[in-house]
Amino acid sequence: MPVKEMPVEIFDLDQLRSYTLGDRDLEDEVFGLFEAGALEYLAALEAALGAGGEAWRRAAHGFKGSAANLGARALAAELAAAEPLATADTAARAAALHAIRHLFEHSRAVFRSRP
């Protein structure tokens, strides 16, 4: 019988709160820094879309670490899967970038609707 995979949590707010000790202003500041960096990583992935290579791998790897540290688990998992696509075809990277953007927006929405 196949093992059913558990869905990856979109955003672990408890992880973020462990860094900020529940200070909502600090949460906003930390997320703002993540968001600014994420937009830079997205631009780098877009720029490396056609060629792939080391530029794609570096951007995916850096973005993955940033997302994982913040608690954006699903985004970090998608970026981990995208990292080896540095040597894949452009269509595979384009599909990954689409998914990455979607999960980034979903992570933003979860953060902004936090209780």
TrEMBL record:
Pfam families: Hpt. One of its GO terms (biological process) is phosphorelay signal transduction system. It comes from the Bacteria. One of its GO terms (molecular function) is protein kinase activity. Keywords: Two-component regulatory system. This is HPt domain-containing protein. Residues 30-108 form the HPt domain. Gene3D superfamilies: HPT domain. InterPro entries: HPT_dom_sf (IPR036641), Sig_transdc_His_kin_Hpt_dom (IPR008207). Transmembrane segments: none annotated. The keyword Transmembrane helix does not apply.
